[in-house]
Specification:
By secondary structure, the protein is of the alpha+beta class. The protein contains 5 helices and 11 strands; from the N terminus they run αβαβββααββββαβββ. The chain has helices at 2-37, 53-58, 115-126, 128-131, 188-202, and strands at residues 45-48, 61-76, 79-95, 101-114, 133-139, 145-153, 156-170, 173-178, 206-209, 216-222, 226-239. The longest helix has 36 residues, at 2-37. It is elongated, with a radius of gyration of 25 Å. The two termini are 49 Å apart.
Length: 240
């Protein structure tokens, strides 16, 4: 009886070790396939979920694989912008007959564009020195987007101040909406110029592009550190 228990324990340990070694190998393989198929510039961190793993491999189906990148380069109207903490959850991966391909039924992810990075990108887009409008971003107390404006008015640089606003998303296009009703008190002539600059520059619809292949942008929400992105896709095919 004692020998049988020992044998079972040893077999269990060996199975667990083999299972974990197989997971490690699979994570490396999925990372390489994800880098190639999603058009990533670096190898992502990959974590295969579920135990035991070997039974998933035998069934040629992985229940969940998490893919993570510390940073990812995207674009706003062709201007570079860095998405940080890009984490993608791949669900229900079907493996090909020779294990060289995998298709994820669903992909859901999140990412972050810091307010500092957003302000830098918008500064390049607006060309503040030539257009007369400078812009920075933060989070307002009520959870809306906080927009700090500077404007060149009547030959002088004016610190307009903090104004609440929102960011709207339609497809892959975003628009910063400044709440002009909340602009600080300004002389009438200066106010009209500031409002015109906001309409002509800040309120322009922008296109976000360059996200990993097969993923689309679902939501953009102001958060503590920056704009929080939600992305998704379906039937993502990973190939080596």
């Amino acid at each position: 009886m004692r020998i049988s228990v020992i044998v079972l324990v040893v077999l269990g340990v060996l199975f667990t070790v083999a299972d974990r070694l197989a997971v490690s190998y699979a994570e490396d393989e999925v990372a390489a396939k994800a880098q190639s198929s999603l058009g990533l510039s670096e190898t992502p961190d990959v974590s295969v979920k579920g135990f035991p793993f070997l039974t998933q491999i035998l069934g040629k189906n992985l229940s969940r694989v998490d893919v993570g990148l510390d940073s990812y380069p995207a674009q706003v109207d062709g201007t570079s912008i860095t998405v940080e903490q890009l984490d993608i959850e791949l669900s229900d991966l079907k493996l090909g007959s020779n294990y060289s391909t995998a298709t994820a039924r669903q992909a859901d992810g999140t990412g972050l564009i810091t307010y500092e990075e957003l302000g830098r990108a918008y500064g390049e887009l607006l060309g503040s020195d030539s257009t007369g409008l400078g812009i920075a971003f933060g989070l307002a107390d009520d959870g809306r987007l906080l927009i700090t404006l500077q404007a060149s008015v009547m030959g002088q640089r004016l610190n307009v101040g903090d104004v609440p606003g929102d960011i709207t998303l339609e497809g892959d296009r975003v628009r910063v909406n400044v709440d002009k009703d909340e602009l600080p008190s300004l002389p009438a002539a200066a106010l009209s110029q500031v409002e015109a600059l906001i309409d002509e520059q800040a309120g322009v619809e922008r296109t976000i592009s360059g996200l990993p292949d097969g993923l689309s942008l679902d939501a953009v929400t102001p958060g503590e550190q920056g704009l929080e992105l939600s992305v998704s896709g379906s039937d993502l095919r990973l190939v080596g």
